[in-house]
Amino acid sequence: MTLKRSLISWIHRRSTNRSKNGERISNTDCKITSYLSIKDITYGYKPHNPVIEHINLLIPKGRFVGLLGPSGSGKSTLVKLITGLYSPWSGSVQYVYTRQHHDQLERDSEKKSLKEQNNNYDTNSSSPDYYYHTFSIKRPNQVIIGYVPQIETVDWNFPVTVKEVVSMGLWDRSGISPFLSKNTVTEIDRILDNLDIHSHEFGKRQIRELSGGQQQRVFLARALIRKPSILVLDEPTSGVDHNTQEKILNILTALSKAGLTIIMTTHDLSGIARRLPWVVCMNKKILAEGSPSEVLTKENLLKTYGLVVKENNDIGAYD
Amino acid sequence: MDLTILLQPFQYEFFTRAIIVSIVVGGVCGLLGVYIILRGMSYIGHGMAHAVFGGAVVSYIAGFNFYLGATLWGFVSAFLINEIARRDKIKADAAIGVITTAGFAIGIFLISTTRSYTSNFEALLFGNILGITDQDLYVIILVAIMTASFIFFFQKSLLFTLFDKETAKVYGVRIDIVELLFSLVLAIVIIASMNSIGVTLLAAAIVAPAISARMITNNFAKMVISSTIMGVIVSFLGMYSSYFFDSASGSTIVLYGAIAFGFSALYTCLLKIYQTHWHGRIKHSHPHVHANEHKHEHVKKP
Known about the structure:
The complex is a heterodimer of chains A (319) and B (302).
Chain A: H1 2-13, E1 17-18, E2 24-25, E3 30-46, E4 49-60, E5 64-68, H2 75-82, E6 90-101, H3 104-117, E7 132-138, E8 145-148, H4 162-168, H5 182-194, H6 199-202, H7 212-224, E9 230-233, H8 242-257, E10 261-266, E11 278-283, E12 285-290, H9 292-295, H10 298-305, E13 307-309, E14 315-317
Parallel strand pairs in A: 5-10, 5-11, 8-9, 9-10
Antiparallel strand pairs in A: 1-2, 3-4, 3-6, 6-7, 11-12, 13-14
Helix pairs in contact in A: 1-8, 4-7, 7-8
Chain B: H1 3-7, H2 13-38, H3 44-62, H4 66-86, H5 92-113, H6 118-126, H7 134-163, H8 165-170, H9 175-197, H10 202-216, H11 220-245, H12 249-275, E1 276-279, E2 282-285, E3 288-292, E4 295-298
Antiparallel strand pairs in B: 1-2, 3-4
Helix pairs in contact in B: 2-7, 2-9, 2-10, 2-11, 3-4, 3-5, 3-9, 3-10, 4-5, 4-9, 6-9, 7-9, 10-11, 10-12, 11-12
């Protein structure tokens, strides 16, 4: 599948790691692990009336997570806390990067210099040999987040073209002039073509003139053009038909396989939720977490929705 | 027809000056108008102009420089409107309604208690080309340069904030700063435009070119350019013909603005009728090419 392949190659191309000396190092020289850590967060819109309480989540890099829950369960609020739109009342949202190096030469030279400084330094005490970790902890506003808002919140009458919408993703990287540079236009065309929206045909159209699926992909393009380390989507599959849902899900799965962390909210239990690799059931609190086959049980669904999904995927009252 | 009659107004220095001022004012109001109507705050021009009027009266009575007093007053009003509108509880239009009319009321209150100043403020209310001085000319040119630079350098963050405030915030746009700066620029533009168009009519000069441009295009960049050009043309025609009609410059400019809007609405309406066609029983309207008498080919790009 060309779309899938081009997306994966694009994701791989964007990873460039550099050593302390500024030299380019490949991922084989060091092992990078990063995860999103949500620690005991509580947040609400009115005092003493929290919408979400004591949420704890650990999302490793590359995981494709679906947040499930009924309306008013705090899914969108959690998404806004993850993106840094809101600050939690208590607890923290952190992006933790750990880098495990096994660069022997670098380690040896460090040991040597330490030995010279202190003759009593016992090199054997540092374990494991030739490995060391570096940690960096970042707040949501310090990492690049791709955010796709709920499609219902968009003002479709706003006079912007597809290209103008995608260029918003590069508002801080495309120079001070309001005119788009040649490189920016090429980048926009490339990302739109990757998402199967032919730039020469649709680029100058007003966003309202596109179909639901195309509109959703334009907003996805605006998020991906930032080259995010985490992609957050609020109800990307609501308000679109089945085929469009499939298309969006395929794109997101391809991106996830290429190493992009994806968090999306959905209330669609029957179709979407069962196809996600990892789901989190929440209703004010985290009720269950794991693969859909483990999590989407009658007991968990009753706790989350007060409903269960029957064998034939219809939603019915639990009795 | 003798052409000298057409050039007659330009013999007067005051009129040439007024024409230059009105063209610049028209362009600047047209440019800012786009951002105002898309922000859903069409009434802010009207409100701010009224609020600033209060400041103008206070500074006149207290013996301050008009621009200094009015600018300070305008900044405070802009800041207050912005702050109140940011809170979810009260909508922007309500905030504008209270703060700006209160500002205007202070002006009227002071005028009514000190009646000797009345005639001077009539010019501020309805616009008067005779009231335009060399100082006004320099001020408006300076303001135009400042506004154009603000729009140029903040265009990306302004557009992002207008279209999708939430995502803009996630992507690092300082929306509070952008919105506050925009309100301040608007206050300055209103103060600089007051003498030529007048407080009561300024809102139309800001909104009319922008909505006319909105009707004829769906493209943001084209809308900005056409609104600015329309503002310039409307202001020039209004000011120029006010000489022959012997009318108040502000009202003439605004009437031309309304005519421009009428033409845009008519054009859109006629275009819709021209593009209307039937597919069996389904009626719709979009650009298409007539292939022959009974059939047409759809154009890929509407």
